[in-house]
Protein 1
Amino acid sequence: SPRPTCCSKDKLSRRRIPEFRIREYRYSASSCALRAVLVKLDHGMVCVDPQQKWFQEYLRKQKKPKTPST
């Protein structure tokens, strides 16, 4: 069965997740009571508050085009 894509407030991770551990992320379904981001790690999923400062910074970095390192 598909996993529910909702996060409850007590499931939200308070800790900053190291960027190198984030495999992918997606926003919770619009039908969810709580607006959250599901972050996929090597060993499972973590719920994150999209308003958290570290996540905002992470998103900003993701949007920047990656320049080839010389």
Protein 2
Amino acid sequence: MSIIAYLQLNQWQQHQLPDSYANESDHLAVGGDFVISRAATGEVVSRYQDNVWNMKMYDARGVCIYDFVSWADGSENPLATVIVEEMKCIQFARMYLFPMPRKPVSLTMSTLRKLVYLSFRNNLSLTQLFESENINRFFLPSFALLERDAMGRMLTFLKEIFEFRVKHPDFTIAPASYEPIKLMQAIYDKSSKWGNGEQQQTKLIPTRIYAAFIAAINSELDAFNEHRDALVAFCRKRKENPRFGVSEARMYLYKEGVVWSDLVSLFGLRSLFEKYSIADGADLRKYVGEIQCAAKYWIHFFSGMRDNEARCLPADAYQTIEMAGADFSILRGYTSKVAGQNQTETFWITTPAAEKAVVAARCVGEITALWNDLDYTDLSKSPLFPSLKFSNDYREFKCSPVAGGRAMLVRKKRLFSRWPEIIVQEADIRELEQFDGFRDWRNDPDVQIGQPWPLATHQCRRSLAVYAARSGMVSVGSLGLQFKHLTEVMTSYYRKGSAFAVNFLQTDEAQGWMEELECERLKSQYINYEANVINSASRLWGGEGNRIQVARDKGQPLIITTDRAMTEKKFLKGEMVYKIGPIGGCTNLEPCDKISFTSIFACMDCENSILDDDRSLKNIRRGLDNLKREKSLFAVENPQYKQLESEISAIYEKLEKTGLLEKMEAMA
């Protein structure tokens, strides 16, 4: 009698109350004439048979209404009629079967509507949705994609209606078993507690479109690379003599000119130019820009880089490292996602397939240098993706500025216009609804059937994380290393929902690539361990670092620093790890539960840390400078100022106890 109890406690008169039954179980067989609400005069306002229950008179703000049909947009579908009746049954049970007094306005319907949308899209009634098979197939995958707040509301709602079913067997619009709710609770408990906003997460690229993008870009790069030498020679010839490659209409102005079509044939470029409708220099400039855009997205697909990380890659980014008789590929560049710093040198593991994009991008860079009279020979000081047209005011690289984002958007549209395979189809929407059923994909203005998929660089990043995790062969730690994330939380956020994504990485070739990715990650950890620990001339400290240094000082170095072959095997088996942290290395096999965005100095007291007098002290000093700058933003009496002052003092105290304070302050 929850709603009746609340109204009686708030002094509503008997003639103003809704109807009720003396026996609680009778509320499960309610008739259409049952009065849901009455006006102050006692006049009937809403009955059970109505599709809208007006509860404004019981709400201090006068806004409470239970609308059961607005979601259907006037649909006369028989399934919609069934769902409307189920909604009434659930809402009525919430009004009358809850054991405590309850405000009518507290019985919001937003969570119920999410369930309605999910069931209707999958051609199910609510009762059918709660069947065991459909809970696993449709409900749980969509639940895992909700933000934490919405997830909590959904969990509370399911617990409530499950209790109704347990106490009243005739109430069947709820899960029959508590097991799904246990799974929901586990998912909720593992969800990110910091993510309280309702902002939609980056879209996952459907598998068919994902494969279509890769195939289309691959074709573009292959066609360009096949003619790259001829294209450079063609552009060089035109640069040396502007009369070469003029249009037929302007030939009368030049006695010694060469018409465009003849020059194209001379360099063997006719088939390429006809395929892409390149009729003059302006068309050629557009085509070169499109290839640069395609190459950049190829890098995103095969590395998971952020947009700015790819834009700032040097021209010599692609490298192959040989280790223990095996070769693996990396992309060296810069990230701003390490320890709150701006640009920090780092690397991304990739596959040999990435090389074709680098080759094409370098060719574009060489052509750009010809057009702008620049020297592109020093690849380490030249961008992989230079701007095709620019002034002399640039900062990123010595040679030229990097390509701007606005130019890339224009080129992307031109590329998409010739890739029909990336047009969104009904099957793609269905896959997205299966992956995230609580998101209204059909009314998403960016995703329209018959239109190209709205590709963005972060989608490449999230799709790689999701599908890699879905393959079952890449761990959170692996993704964290690849995506340059400081904590497990952000890595888990990117791969969120991966258990419910389609696993299209089932071919031998794809599985081999995933195994190679994981193997190369382990190798890269050993390489860093060898460079920063075994070969380090600096004095080591920190929990694990101190253990290694004490053994060295005694003249009895640990076997892990002397038997390199054995140590490498331990890394490849996963028995040892070496993760780069904000101020040094970490050997913890498990995810770190100490470090956070607000406390990156936890490594100083950790038993798993390996720190040194050089790199670690520099990072600590840089971190202290950041804290001091942050402190200066607050007034002295501000609590935030005092908190930062306390943190800074604690760090100085730790350094002084270890005898490292003087050494750090002596650094330039």
